[in-house]
Every structure is written in structure tokens, then in C-alpha cells.
Amino acid sequence: MAGLRDVFIMKERMNSGVSSVMIILEKASILISLLIILSIGLALNLPSWGVGLMFGLSIGPVVFGHYYVIYIWPILKQQRAKVEE
User: Fold this and answer.
1) Contacts of 41 (CB under 8 A, 6+ apart)
2) How many degrees, rounded to 5, is the angle at CA 72 between CA 30 and CA 3?
3) CA-CA distance, 42 to 48, in Å (whole number)?
4) What residues have CB less than 8 Å from 21, skipping those under 6 apart?
5) Are 9 and 34 within 8 A, CB to CB?
6) By C-alpha distance, which of 73, 52, 69, 62 is closest to 30?
7) Cα(81)–Cα(85) distance, integer angstroms
8) Other CB atoms within 10 Å distance of the CB of residue 46
9) Is the distance from CB of 14 to CB of 75 less than 8 angstroms?
């Protein structure tokens, strides 16, 4: 499993040829996901501390999940392809 330092190294490697629009879309996707989680908490009529707890506990998995799909997964696929050759 990749550590946080490895994630940032992979992110820098992948961002070398990426436009700023793609980076903005990545951040917007994270924010939209967190907004959906917040709206689910509000729709369930949770108390304010429950919504905050639900939102707070989901920040880490949402951000790491986006980073995994966008940065780590393509590099792992490239490494597997090199090993199979």
C-alpha cells in the first residue's frame, strides 16, 4: 500500500504533462463528492454533530480514493505491463 509520501511523488510524476484544467476538475470532483456526502447526512436528518462527524470521517477516504484512481492506479498498470513483457 502506498504511503502519503509515495502518493505525492506519483502525483508530481503524473502532473508533469497535465493541464491546469484537469487539476481543477480533479479538485472539483473531490468537492462534489464531499457535497454529496454532506447532503446525505442532512437528508437523513442527523443532528449537526452527526453531519459533521460523517463529513469529517469521509474526507480522508474520498481524497485518498481520488488520488488512488487518478495517480496510483495508472502507474501500477504501467508497472504490471512492464513486468508482463
Assistant:
1) 50, 51, 54, 55
2) 90
3) 8
4) none
5) no
6) 62
7) 6
8) 14
9) yes
pLDDT of residue 10: 67
Identity of residue 59: I
Is the whole-model pTM more than 0.85? no
Quick: pLDDT tens for 20-70: 777 788 889 999 999 999 999 999 999 999 999 999 999 999 998 988 888
Backbone angles phi, psi at 17, to 5 degrees: -120, 15
Using only C-alpha atoms, the chain has a radius of gyration, in whole angstroms, of 16
- Residue whose C-alpha is closest to residue 36's, from 54, 53, 50: 54
CA distances for 68 relative to 2, 57, 85, angstroms: 9, 18, 24
